Amino acid sequence: MSDAYARVILPAGSPLFEEGEAGRAAYLIVEGGIEIFLRREGGEVRLATRGAGEIVGEMALLDAGPRSASARAASDCSLIPITEDQIRYRTSQLDPILRMFLGVVLARYRDLMPLLNRSGPGSDLAAGTAPVGSNAAIARLMMERDLRRGLEAGELELFFQPIVRLASGSIAGFEALMRWRHPERGLVPPIEFIPVAEESGLIVEITQWALSEVGRVLPEIMRAALHNVAELEGPPFMSVNVSGHDLALVGFPATIADMLARTGLAPESLKIEITESILMHDPAKAAQALELCRESGMGIAIDDFGTGYSSLSYLTNLPITTLKVDRAFVQAMMREPRSRKVVQTILRLADELGIPVVAEGIEAEAEAEALVAMGCAFGQGYLFGRPTPLPETLTLTRAWRRDRRLGPAFPSAARA
Ligand code: C2E
Ligand code: CA
Ligand code: CA
What does pTM read for this prediction? Predict the structure, then answer.
């Protein structure tokens, strides 16, 4: 069929079209690869590479708008241009039912365009790297597609960061922090993909994966801890970050309970971390889900405490077992007396309510000492250890010494 169409040969590196141009054709790639990118101040933002059998440039053709990105040959290419006239001519010869079907599908696709082209704050990717307007929407869609592929391909990975008892220096537990080992981009931090996952709802599958992964690795970490009972005051817990989408799922508490039952893990060895904004979004629903989680025995931590709405009423109404004070306060504490007062007040309040506190982002020995003096029970931060992959976490657990951060054997901690 393709022989009825003219072919275009494009040597590697040659431009195919530029952002902003009128889009008069889409291109079917017969051989080679086409790179789609945006030119921005400070360089290019690569969006995708398409290969043989795929189409490029169809967006502008379908919505009759300017090209939303630039494209060039990534390698020597053979392409078949497909113009609007050709589409009209070919479809006029189709069976009428098939033509109607295609017409409806295309109309739906065109209706989607304005939605994709939404711009404004909140629709951009991570600040500083985001292309604007429709480009951001397209880049976000591509990222979502890539993330879905990455999840299926097993590219997501959990790193683990120790949470220590400040008074003794022993490991109390770990926080599981997600990374994406991308085949081209390398290790992608969560700030670059969790927001996309949350916006698209893909976070639900990602959290399910994280929970089952925790079910797999926590027994291994516990076995490692058994080799070092003298330095750890009991089996470590694992804290997992959970989004509002997860909590809104009716079956969420049951999924966790199933995972615990399947793995034989004690419920108190698992904590979920939620932010204040999740609680504020739909307090009644969140309360219901949290009650169920708590009934099954797992811990519930409020993450980034102090940065959100900090409506203190939920501390008494909800079954909260841990408060995590945001690292912004911990880091400002040594410079500003007011931040120190905030930390002190949170610690006193939590103490009144019998809720233990984890101070996040401890990087300096002086910060840890000040927190101990104020009665803070737990700490987390580069001073004690960065998030690391499972093998390093197992080694660390076996070799942990309570005075680790002061020891010359751990120069990375001393440097932090
Ligand atoms: P978070 O839950 O507040 O996690 C703590 C973040 O602080 C982590 O960043 C950690 O690496 C970093 N951190 C720990 N100690 C220090 C320190 O001493 N100094 C500094 N400067 N940073 C420190 P990370 O791993 O990049 O994660 C960023 C955020 O991404 C997390 O913030 C959390 O909101 C989200 N996230 C990570 N993993 C997951 C996940 O599995 N699910 C969900 N829903 N969100 C996740
Ligand atoms: Ca967290
Ligand atoms: Ca936090």
Answer: 0.72
